[in-house]
Amino acid sequence: xxxxxxxxxQKGGVGKTTTTVNLAAGLAKVGQxxxxxxxxxxxxxxMGSGVDKRKLELTIYDVLLESASVAEARAKSDKxxxxxxxxxxxxxNRELAGAEVEMVELERREKRLKLALAAxxxxxxxxxxxxxxxxxxxxxxxxxxxxxxxxPMQCEYFALEGLTDLVNTIKQVKANLNDDLQxxxxxxxxxxxxxxxxxxVSEQLKAHFGDKVFNTxxxxxxxxxxxxxxxxxxxxxxxxxxxxxxxxTFAQEMVDRIKVM
Length: 261
Ligand code: ATP
Ligand code: MG
Prior knowledge:
With 261 residues, this protein is of the alpha/beta class. The chain has helices at 16-29, 44-47, 60-64, 70-73, 78-83, 96-103, 112-118, 137-145, 159-176, 196-209, 222-226, 234-237, 242-259; strands spanning 3-7, 34-38, 88-90, 126-130, 148-154, 183-191, 213-219. The chain is globular, with a radius of gyration of 17 Å.
């Protein structure tokens, strides 16, 4: 059975997409079968995995509106196959922005993704979902089918403040729609140990959330930021870089964590 994780934080630009694609590549590298779902109309995770969002005929949009199955809509990326870290991609593009409105009419609209994923469950070890920077119907669909949420965060002054809304949303979803749901962990990203404030916030996080904070820390690393323009995750673009190595370590940490879930 696949373990399904949302990468979510309603704050924009905190590293959700970078985390999703690099964790997917890292997991593939350590031998896991992975499906990456782009649940953001920006389509950054799609492009960052080497799939051209403008050329996709079927996307997550068609899956949510039940005009295609996951098996029909998923894609593979030549660049990932060449890089030796291949995972399947259920892509997104701007069309997905309309799904929100179109789904309002539908029954059990927050469970659409969950139902669709059941059909491919046995084919994967991990399903990773890149959520948009909002707590919308799209994010809700992700949260309804997930076993856990990975929350990437920068160790900055306002980081903890935004976390309260996310924690409350997760509590509500758990109480009403998905009893399995939990925060599997907070991932410190874009970390720069030379900045005292970041060290302080990192310590606060550990004091407050204990073992909910992942051991792995993702450093600020320019190679991770450069990789999307080549249509691959940093793990494929420059495997020797500090950022790539941190994501492979994180992938192994995830594999170890799900053993005790
Ligand atoms: P959005 O909310 O718009 O979906 P996001 O949370 O998905 O954004 P990303 O797109 O992953 O965030 O990252 C935001 C920017 O920070 C990107 O330009 C990305 O390349 C860069 N970035 C992310 N992680 C790192 C890192 N560890 N080191 C350096 N740059 C990074
Ligand atoms: Mg993103």
